[in-house]
Sequence to fold (266 residues):
Amino acid sequence: MISPPIHKQDFIVGEVALVGAGPGDPDLLTLQAFRFIKQADVVIYDRLVSQEIMALLPTQCEKIYVGKKQAEHRVPQEGINQLLVDHARLNKKVVRLKGGDPFVFGRGGEEAQFLLKNDIACHIVPGITAASACSSYAGIPLTHRQVAQSCTLITGHVQENGALDLPWQTLNDSKQTIVFYMGIKSLPIITAQLIQAGRNKETPASLIRKGTHSDQQVIKGTLTDLEALVKQHNIKPPSLIIIGDVVNTFNSYQLQNLGYLSTKIN
Ligand code: SAH
Fold:
């Protein structure tokens, strides 16, 4: 039996492609993503899409920025959804370009649901997510035999009332790596709650700012001192937090030998 293609590949007018642009370094764009963006008539893109990737877009395509910062939503999600539908109905090839992977904290699921509800065909093009890319570029394996047997990707985005309602008791396994997306603002809550849930306060913890970009920064500390280090160096988003013994898999000498050139602050 011949299996049908697992992924529809042809991009035709009136369709939308939700494309993952990866974490920043254009070398990490997939060939599939590249093929879709090269055909785009209009690209609706986010703040996290790097300049280098924007430079790969066809010169004649229309570019619409809908980026948002925490607490300062430029275009509300409903507006973005409608924009996608409106442009598809103009018989264009519409690319919705997102940082990382559309299905990892990227609202790709919501946008695809809305498109399908409006009878618009939609492609999902995966991208390299920040957890995978930042960990590689900082020399931190997310899992490592005998050190970390599982890895959780979790949001650190606080609700409007300032709360961060997470299942802390499920995060207290010392052999579990935890990766927080959108966690820089809530770092004090994260570290305090993890210690309260039973993680050792000396658990290694790292923060990677602008991972894979030429100005990537990596801070390493522990659950106890990471927050102070981040404050001291005035680190801003976008930043990813990796917590667990894997953070110390390689020492700085080994990292140099592995070819890591990024600025390591501590
Ligand atoms: N869909 C994206 C995640 C979007 S949520 C993905 O799969 O990667 C936005 C959060 O992702 C940021 O707050 C930050 O925590 C993380 N992030 C994305 N790109 C990053 C980068 N280059 N360096 C560090 N963190 C990044």
